[in-house]
Task: structure prediction
Amino acid sequence: MGQYILRRIIHAFFVVLGVVTAVFVITNLTGDPVQLMLGEAATAQDIERVRRELGLDRPLYVQYLNFLSSVARGDFPESLRYRGHSALEIVLDRYPRTIVLAIAALCVSVTLAVTFGTISAVKRYSAIDNLVMLLALFGQSIPNFWLGIMLILIFAVNLGWLPSQGYELSPAYLILPTITLASPGLARLTRLTRSGMLEVLNSDYIRTARAKGLRESAVIFRHAFKNAAIPLVTVIGLDFGVLLGGAIITEQIFQWDGVGQLLVTAIYSRDFPVIQASVLIIAVSFVLINLIVDIMYTWLDPRVRLT
Amino acid sequence: MAGERASVTSLVTPFADVRARRSATQRALRLLWRNRLGLLGVSILSIVVLAAALSPFITPYDPMTGDITKRLTCPVLTRCPSFMPGATPVRGTLDHPLGTDQLGRDIFSRIVYGARVSLIVGLAAVLLGAGFGSTLGLISGYYGGRIDAVIMRIGDLFLAFPYLLLAIAIVAVLGGGLLNVIIVLAIATWVPYARIMRGSVLSAKEQEYVIAARAIGVRDLALLFKHVAPNCLTPIIVFGTFNVAAAIIAEAGLSFLGLGVGATRPTWGNMLADGRAYVATAWWLATFPGLAIMLTVLSINMIGDWLRDALDPHLRNVE
Result:
């Protein structure tokens, strides 16, 4: 088991290294970043000065090594928009807000998906199963940015129950962005829970459990769900990445002051250090969460420990 | 010699294969007839495709030209909100069945033209991503060893970025535009195709028809693309269908953020972004483009479900 975890950690380290390299490549090899930063109106002297300041006049491999070392030290260049603050400092300041939103959305989608997916599987082919599956099909097809606007229209504009936008750590501000962000994952997880449960419910050990005279609730929750949950854990890990990506649009709709909104603003204002830091933080979080999920797997599924 | 090899090669493809392929198509069509949701999906998507193809003939107005005197006209059968205190409320008319936007442009015409962009981006991104990913998966699975390791590790790297984040990061540097958005969405999605194809090839390459073809000297390239690839396409087609829906949503999302195909073209995402600013006063601006996206994506997902049931009996039993 220790060897498995060590192997996963080494793998994650190389993926993170790859992510850092990819961010460097994306922002450096697709044209002159200084020209992109300063725009068409910049003079040759301005471009030269910024190139020197950022170390972009050096050979590419030196730039790459400098970039690696500054990432390792957490020493990012200064933001071009918020002068006097390092890009990483600004991103880390907004990061908890994105995480709060992503975790709230994950909790909502997992709780509802497991409930509806299990009911649907247990009541297979009933009216409730058909209704849940139809709703899941719709849920997968609704673009969440449209759902967000419609929620604002109904609950903020027409009913006036909830605020339409803004960031505050109160349930009122959190409800609409959470539902918006959770909706695609909720639909997907519901379908997966149902299919996972159906597969498990048809297996021999469930028949044995029933034959022993166990209560149906014990059969479903103690025996069936435990096994159906194993593949779900992987999907939940991957979904967290989808949530972090989806948060970029959700934060924009609700003016939620997180990393997603910061990234979009940085793209509009060509603030490359902030773009680099935001992409890096989100991608590294995704890798680390999947590493945790992989490690959790060894605890959930003994077969992984043995291979 | 070459002709001899070709005739021998053709014998390698067993008749049973051709029959199986024909019966798979027949089974798929039979299942479509029985699968009401699949049939509904095909019908809805056919209407969207026809509307997009015939947009210059069926739209009453130019999607880019507005009539400022008719700005924010509400849809037919609804009461327009009065923007001036004390003004008499007006009802929408059939002139603009879905109303007009803040510049007086006809929403219906813009939605019909917007379908073109969504369908082109969705299909092209999937074809490009699936073509590129499947080819790499084919090479990776067939040759194995170092080539396999390198391709799969590069794939891991791409998977380390959430899909939309990767697309946004590349668009931020490359810039928007139709071609760039297609390329970006293809780059962001090639890995699952490579993995699916690799998995299929790993099991296919041990099968007798591949061993037989190799034994009679069929070259690698011909073997890969003529014999192995066609037999591994089913999961790629099913995944690709669902991915068209995902690409349409992603394109709309990029356009919504102002990073899509550009403001000069009417797209559903651009329309949603415009509508967001008017959500308190003109609900129809954001409602109808969103409904168009939802219906199109829903129809593609229904078709995807039908294809999966028809082409992959294993999954049919599970779900």
Notes: Chain A touches chain B through 51 residues (CB under 8 Å). Residues 87-298 of chain A form a domain with the MetI-like fold fold (CATH 1.10.3720.10).
